[in-house]
Specification:
Belongs to the nucleosome assembly protein (NAP) family. This protein is an all-beta fold. The chain has no helices and two strands. The protein has one domain (1-38).
């Protein structure tokens, strides 16, 4: 978890790794909510 900072609003960023039915790796992650001016 992140403490308040001048760059983005999120307190937690995640990344998930998984494999589709054909064994191809897929990665999804949090969309960062940047603060104004970033």
């Amino acid at each position: 978890n992140f403490s308040p900072n001048p760059y983005f609003e999120d307190t937690k960023l995640t990344k998930t790794y998984y494999f589709d039915e054909e064994g191809v790796p897929k990665i999804t992650g949090t969309t960062i909510r940047w603060k104004d001016g970033m």
